[in-house]
Design goal:
single chain; mainly alpha
């Protein structure tokens, strides 16, 4: 192999994670829109979450079992437990976030659920005893002000229920932070199929149990409802989330969370023509402040 060919190969390998992340963001940006259409078909939020992960897990099962069971057998008990915790975190993320769309706008929901870099920074301080960096402090303050602007605007225009939606989206952000942090650790030793096979299946089982416990029916909906959920499983889940998990082997969890800042922008742009959800100027300012705060916090974590 010539030096020129080797250099081209290195450049391709460097570019590939960013290309895969861009593909994932495009897929995930449509998630909130598809969920709202499925809700319009009468499918409850927890049932959407459970069926989304179930469909994705069933699609992966034959491939994961054939190629990854050897890796599972060699996995240390602690790492196996971490993979299960990651699956539970993913389940809680979807349960909280999908439910938030019943109470607040697409923009508010996706902006608040994208605040996970702030929680990653706080976890580093509280759990890992790391010092709080100046960028993280600035990011938390700026994002807090932006969140207050959106919350007050939601309260004034949509009532107290919208604040519940905002809070559920924030809870979803906390849950997905654990999922991404654990994924960064385990993807260094597990193949993509071995990792997502465990995590997606665990999340599906947890969500199915939640749906049953909450009395949510999983059957009897329209064909359109099931097709929309299948689309969620194929696009945002198998393409979107799997792209993130693939990239975690090559870039940091912090960098992945920063790239996810494009998701609220994409979702908001889609919601304007499709759902006629035009955000007010104050909400746009608040959303921009939250995104800026997340950027400062995540940048602080990399310095």
């Amino acid at each position: 192999m010539s030096a020129e060919t080797s250099d081209e190969s290195k450049i391709k390998n460097m570019i590939r994670p960013y290309f895969v992340l861009a593909l994932g963001i495009l897929a995930v940006s449509s998630s909130s829109i598809i969920i709202l259409f499925a809700r319009a078909e009468g499918v409850p939020a927890v049932a959407i979450a459970a069926l989304r992960l179930t469909f994705a897990s069933l699609a992966l099962a034959p491939f994961a079992w054939r190629r990854a069971r050897g890796e599972w057998a060699k996995l240390a008990p602690r790492d196996f437990a971490l993979a299960l915790v990651s699956g539970v975190s993913l389940a809680l993320h979807f349960a909280f976030w999908i439910s938030s769309l019943d109470y607040t706008s697409v923009m508010s929901s996706v902006v608040f659920v994208s605040t996970n870099p702030l929680f990653v920074g706080l976890a580093s301080v509280l759990l890992l005893r790391e010092s709080l960096r100046r960028g993280t402090v600035i990011g938390i303050v700026v994002a807090g002000i932006g969140g207050a602007l959106i919350g007050l605007t939601d309260l004034g225009t949509a009532g107290a229920e919208s604040l519940l939606g905002d809070a559920l989206a924030l809870a979803g952000a906390v849950a997905v932070s654990g999922y991404l942090l654990i994924g960064r650790r385990l993807r260094k030793q597990l193949s993509l199929l071995a990792y997502i096979g465990l995590v997606y299946t665990t999340a599906a089982i947890v969500l199915l149990a939640m749906a049953i416990a909450m009395g949510a029916n999983l059957f009897g909906y329209s064909l359109a409802g099931y097709l929309l959920i299948a689309l969620l499983a194929a696009g945002p889940q198998l393409i979107g989330h799997t792209s993130y998990n693939w990239a975690l082997k090559y870039v940091s969890a912090t960098f992945v969370t920063v790239t996810l800042l494009a998701e609220p922008i994409g979702a908001t742009v889609l919601a304007i023509p499709i759902l006629a959800q035009v955000p007010s100027p104050i909400k746009l300012i608040g959303g921009a402040m939250i995104l800026a705060g997340i950027y400062f916090a995540a940048r602080g974590e990399t310095q």
